[in-house]
Amino acid sequence: MSHFTALVFVVLFTAWPVQSWAHHGIINFDMNREVDVSGVVARLAFVNPHSWLHFDVTAPDGRVTPWKCELRGATVLRRSGWSPEMFTRGTRVRVTGAPDRFEPNTCYLGTAVFEDGTRVDRYGQISRPAAAPAAAAGERPRLLPDGRPNLAGEWAAEQRVLTDPRGISGAFLPLSVARGLEAGAVPEGTQAFPGTRGTAVTRAEDPVNEFWNRRPSLRPLTAAGAKAMEGFDGASDDNPRLRCEPTSILFDWTFESDVNRIVQEDDRIVLTYGSMGLERTIHLNVSQHPADITPSRGGHSIGRWEEDVLVVDTVGFEPGILSADGRLPHSDRLHVVERFTLEPNGRTLTRNWVAEDPLYFEGEYTGRDVVHISDVPYQRTPCEDLSYKSPGAGGVPRAAVWGASAVVVVGIAVLAWRLSRRRRESPA
After folding, report:
1. In terms of residue numbers, what domain contains 408?
2. Running DSSP on this structure, what letter comes out for residue 202?
């Protein structure tokens, strides 16, 4: 290899932007435009956080173009009655939806129509054949033999869907509410989901940044908290769930309506989160946290019963993000208290929480969520984020890519001139 070739290689290698994979999210698709394309299924990646349908489209001249379109995550698709068998290799399918803003031949699947005319929308609920009869409410004891509430089982939040079954427009509401509204409705007191058709976010100069990074924090941040969030990009792998890692014990419990599992024993309760597989143990009959806690994403939890309410105190967190969507970080001083209440029907579990972190945010971060006995069993689902911000650029703005290219060209020209001059000045 000549000195000139080697130097060119070095310039190319060091100046070109490194690709960094990141999550799409609805905003990476232009909901103000539509695609309508037909092809033959090549494969289905049935994974979280989003599944992807790959299919081949054949043009009239015989040229085959591979396409891929994003669906919802595998867990919530299973809850809606979808299955990989719907998209076996060779199945003919017509897809309508929204095009990707950055990558050609890529879309957000709004509706799939099969060769026999069967149509299924993104948020469509497909009835599953009844296997064994569902357990009646009376068949699940609310209390255990020792009198404690029966928390054991598999739990999931009610699905939330866009009021437009295609997922193109409308408000994002619980399924039981959305199914009673007109397609795309935005009821009074709600708002259209940011990024859907016609919203301000879709018309922004940089929709991805507008959607992810211009929203305020859930709590006022201290100076240290603001510093911790400097440069944080929720649409990149700064966001834990886009690295297929747990976010926090608060966010993951109901995110994407995944199915969670609770195992209840005399001296402990183990919670396994369906979202990213976070597992935490609540230690009962323990009054204090140990002095030598190894910091972790789940922290160290001790629990006690106050009549029929399970009160859980958790400390010992490694610094991280309480909510990437809410741009709320936390330090190792985070302290969380949760109160789990089993409702009288024995099939609904309500959690209220209070989180404090005087180092990173002001006041208390409070919240409430509800899960129900799940309609499908808990099942570990692989997580693989198969999308990214901008092809070949890892989310770097296209102007930056061209700017880097210009640097490469100028650098090569300067190197060539210097080497040529050196040769002319060197003695023969």
Report:
1. 3-17+401-425
2. G
